[in-house]
């Protein structure tokens, strides 16, 4: 729009948005290091003044139109006392997503104020926007640099992510060429004409959002002018000179709106949303994946919800409201940036602890104690394994734990416990189908996936179904493997269902030092900190090499530097771009038997793909991969949260949707293509025809959005499945994570062989072929629980590494281990700063989970729900809460709980907020009643003045106290007006008056009437005196003394 269409205002909008963002960074994020003489530390302090240079560029390296500005921040600033210091970049670095969101929001506001419509889109994983009226073909035609980056990633078989795109940009960067706009602009326009591309001027005119409740059209976005000197404003408006534009393509004159149609303004079909909803959606998205949510993340995602519609101040006000209402609770982590936990997370952890406490001391032994002791006495188990077996079978609690170090023999322990349990049912639960299969094979117990158990028993409302489930699982032992990888929501559901079914014992087996769940919460760690009976298995049996065993021990203790020191030459430095290829070469250098016993692990899917590509290239050169190749568009789950799945911006034309339940007119296992997105609906091309639906949070349960990625397979390839498939007549059952070897690729079918030697085949058009990947390298998350004789691990020092990731990689190998990294010292520094153990919601609030709450959480939750209902009714009706039914009872309950001394910090804060608002309203009401009483006492003094005047034979205004009475009345009326027209009235003009305010209004009206009567008497007497003087002096009243005062009094009475 700025360079091809020639609208210079867009360049100015960009410049202003950049400056506004830099001003905001300076005001809010810029910090340096100070000095605290008491603690002798250098804390981060606010800095005063940012030195930054901006370099505006108008083209990309491929000389496509691309308006952007490079901002270089000098490492120098000042403290408040004027001392020069270096910049402390921590807060700026942590806020990089928010900085980008702030710029996009400022730019969108300015474009919308110019009359241009913006279309929502995604910038990576962050919401953004594009100018409406430009279809994707136009954008791609002028994005040669982007096409080059995408082609590079496609050649390497890598997905598009911000990190990989940056890497590809560096690999494909060419030397810049300088050409003038006078040459380039005509070329750009000619290219657009040759391709038949043009912008839709009607679409560029913004639709006006409509409030769904009132039907009112929202106001257009306005950007107030900066409060700066005129010369500075003129400098900021400078735009680069454009060449002379050809006729018909000239930029619009100042004041004209680009693309504004003459037809009436279009109205948006999308309901108008406010900043509060934007913040609520941002919180809903974040809380699915993390318990402690940084404020910067909420602000960045909320700003992107409707770019340009809301300011950061409005977003912050919405955050403050959620805090005030108790939906968000601020954490108490010292030295950290501001962060929150949600009220839902706190309640979920409290419910979890309540279920555990309910089962303490209520379980019965699951085996004969003497038999267990005799069997364990003569066995070969370690002391930790024996303690774990006794805990599983003989503990008095219904929920117990086994904290087993990596390689301590947890599977052997479960096998022994199962043999001692006799006929009692033992069901193993694992996080994946592949892990469940391994658990069943090695522990000798029936094993399901955890998700299968939860889905099967998620709804027990049917009495017959509940009875059958209780008969099946009553008195059973559930052994939950890899419990550290279970999030809070699923753990709570598991324990709740187990209690309902009458399960005798739930044994949680895992290791808190290893990887946590992808979704929010660490319930296994929480239960241990709360005092759950836990057997510790700390004798590591896996590592046979003493040095490797010591390195594993030190990594577990949180000393990655010592661990890498022990590893010595087993840690090798490789250039960052060659990490994946080097891991593949190291594996290819091994013999055939050594390859089979050597695992390759990568921290990310991107590096894993690089390793797979290098291995396949080497195998092909060796002749291990033979025959024709088959190129498959494999499906890669985008793993959207429920909030993202409900956001229409997450759906784009060309996306692939896979259904795992019957929904929206589609069948389970249907693979559909998104053909259109608009008006809040998604249109799908399905095997049964066209279907459309409006996305919601449930979309994440019924279907998954996938990207497609080309993958090649040949005979000899090792692959792994990425989706389960049940066995049925004529087709084998396949499990997610299970591996197979490609035997042959025929014209119609592909033949495979599983690790047990069984052969099977799939048709070339079988949708299951789209759910596979190469299996030479695995991610660290997928490797947890696995064992190999040797391991080659990759860790990027600049990536998302932490101590848990390092420990899992290091503890997989039994004899030999090799770690490849780009920077050994940088990796150690990164690991030491990231322990990988985020606390739960209660810990983030400073609550000790070991102490039972002094107030029943359900009782407290009911009180908070009633209070929020009062607040909601107050907002809806505009009535003062004092007059709402139930208000006194709710406040009395809150006051009673507030009197308890040992309340948890979050409960105390919520009660203080409730009572603070209540107390503030009481104070306001008392002040209002007091003011009404003073006004009433004041106007009642007027008859007394009249009586005293009559007794003295004088007029009231001639009495000594009359002037003071008038002055006091003026002050009281000013105070009454200020009270009645205060901020609360401006926020809600329709708000019903409180009793005290109504009293003020009544008494103020009485005072006004009294003063009017006083003024009327004074006017009558003054006018008569004027008439007497006029007759005496034979002049008009206008020329008599006292005329001006009497006339002003008359005008005031006439105005009343």
Describe this structure in words.
With 1056 residues, this protein is an alpha/beta fold. β15 (426-430), α17 and β16 (446-449) form a beta-alpha-beta unit. The longest helix has 39 residues, at 995-1033. The radius of gyration is 37 Å and the shape is globular. The two termini are 59 Å apart. The model is unreliable at 239-272 and 985-992 (pLDDT under 50).
In CATH, the topology of the largest domain is named Rossmann fold
Distance between the termini: 59 Å
CATH superfamily of the largest domain: P-loop containing nucleotide triphosphate hydrolases
Strand line-up across the major sheet: 16-15-17-18-14-19
Q: What's the helix count? A: 40
**Total domain count:** 7
What does the average pLDDT come to? 80
The CATH architecture of the largest domain is 3-Layer(aba) Sandwich
Biggest sheet, open or closed, and with what strands and sense? 6 strands, parallel
| Percent helix range | 40-55%
Provide the gyration radius in Å: 37 Å
Low-confidence stretches: 239-272, 985-992
Coarse structural class: alpha/beta
Give the DSSP E fraction (strand runs of 2 or more residues).
15-25%
Shape: globular
Kindly provide the name of the CATH class of the largest domain. Answer: Alpha Beta
Give descriptors for this structure.
six-stranded parallel sheet, Arc Repressor Mutant, subunit A, 7 domains, alpha/beta, 1056 residues, six-stranded antiparallel sheet, Rossmann fold, single chain
